Amino acid sequence: MMTHDVKESKLRGKRLFVTKNDVEEKTRIQVNTLLQARLADSIDLRAQMKQAHWNVKGPHFIGLHLLFDQIWEESQDYADLIAERIAQFGGIVDGTIQTAAKTTSLDPYPSDITDGKQHVEALSHALATYGELIRKAIEQCDELNDKGTADLFTEISRGIDKNLWFLEAHIQA
């Protein structure tokens, strides 16, 4: 009988839970490393959305305030999808703020802005960067022959593209 305890993987000392998932252990380890990196970015993106939500001022306050909150909610879903995929592959999810702060690939969010247009610019930059990282993750998962995780990242990519469009519409005229 197979145990469901944590075991030390023979591959690079990574710890995994034993699972009957038929994706090769080497692939699960590589994909979990990728997922963990994108989880850190997702946590940072959520925090950046709330920073803008709490601090936006100006003539379009209510519309932007609500839009930033809507994008935050969707970003919450992305983080959850990614974290659950890590767990599905037997990985141990590290979704702490401390880890996200140390490992995020996103640029730091300016903490001194209040103008709606400045927030839209900063968030558009963050979403565009995040979208680029997610699309690279799709390619990496395809190279690892993990269509399931590539599909998860594709779903996230579509949502990010939609939200980037919503944001950029505020500065395009």
Query: What is the CATH class designation?
Result: Mainly Alpha
The share of residues in extended strands comes to under 5%
Our count of domains comes out at 1
By CATH, the superfamily comes out as Ferritin, core subunit, four-helix bundle
Shape: elongated
Could you describe the 3D structure shown?
The structure is a single chain. This protein has helices spanning 25-55, 61-88, 97-103, 116-143, 147-168, and strands at residues 6-8, 15-17. It is mostly helical and 173 residues long. The protein has a two-stranded antiparallel ribbon with strand order 1-2. The longest helix is centred in the first third of the chain and has 31 residues, at 25-55.
Question: How would you briefly describe this protein structure?
Answer:
The chain has helices at 25-55, 61-88, 97-103, 116-143, 147-168; strands spanning 6-8, 15-17. The chain is mainly alpha-helical.
Top keywords for this entry?
single chain, 173 residues, mainly alpha, Ferritin, two-stranded antiparallel sheet, 5 helices, 2 strands
